[in-house]
Amino acid sequence: xxxxxxxxxxxxxxxxxxxxxxNIYLKAVDDVSFNIYKGETLGLVGExxxxxxxxxxxILNIYKATSGTVEFKGKNIYELKGKEAKEFTxxxxxxFQDPYASLNPRMLVSNIIGEGIDIHKxxxxxxRMNRIHELLELVGLNKEHANRFPHEFSGGxxxxxxxxxxxxxxxxxxxxxxxxxxxDVSIQxxxxxxxxxxxxxMGLTYLFIAHDLSMVRYISDRVAVMYLGSMMELANSDELxxxxxxxxxxxLLSAIPIPDPKVQRKRERIVLQGDVPSPxxxxxxxxxxxxxxxxxxxxxxxxxxxxxxxxxxxxxCHYWKEAEKRI
Length: 327
Ligand SMILES: Nc1ncnc2c1ncn2[C@@H]1O[C@H](COP(=O)(O)OP(=O)(O)O)[C@@H](O)[C@H]1O
Ligand code: SF4
Ligand SMILES: [Mg+2]
Fold this sequence. Notes:
This protein has 327 residues and is an alpha/beta fold. The protein has twelve helices and twelve strands.
């Protein structure tokens, strides 16, 4: 399905290592490759610390990559200069997990939303103010909210302000970094629905980061699963949930309760042994080998590559065929 679609973002062999001490590197993102197609939502899931935010920041050029390339519409973003570089900072935006920490408490909402409009010299005076009012309404707030400060809002409303700020500069691509994780469960669906509506109206492309698999299925066209800086599996959402191939994805999914008791009983619950290893000194072969119920000597020595094993279904596991049958 996605093969004939336009690639908006092409990530190849991306590494982001943090130099945390003399000659000591933390491998936050360790050689990942994937595409994001125009108009889609790519979900990115994995446990805390597996490198999701670092991927998001590196493909927005907030962090400089250690190596590898990120192309936006066919151009390497790390080589953009002058006007083109500035245009990229407008076209690619971010929505953060904690809407309170990411909004300056001393700024009026109008100036928070207007900041990008000013930086990119999009509008001034009354036209600027009208646009800010329009954006507030677009995200389900109203124009009276423009003259208030962030602390006067609820968590869900603050996230709406964060969304309006991202939209203010007419972006094409938005990294949504756990935008609902800090919100009450009752509010989460509202914010997800808002993001879906806005995507349709404005033709946006999203990278939607989440640490659990439940809400991601609903918003994403495709889902990628990360583990310790590596991408383990990538498939269309329904396919990933109904036919997971990687032992780690299977373990993550087995932890989600299924409403249908018949299906629930049939599905084996896989409890992961041990802890996630350190990204400073990750296992030399498959990163999941220490915890995988199927690991062999080969797994410990040879790192499996992410490969397309079925149409639009990528997996990084030497034994995905056996895993498909066994667990
Ligand atoms: N600025 C940084 N400096 C050093 N280490 C970092 C930095 N940012 C993240 N890390 C480390 O990189 C790894 C991935 O972090 P992150 O991308 O935030 O994971 P996630 O978003 O999946 O929770 C973690 O081990 C984290 O401690
Ligand atoms: S490569 Fe080996 S250790 Fe890694 S997930 Fe597959 S079976 Fe498990
Ligand atoms: Mg994060």
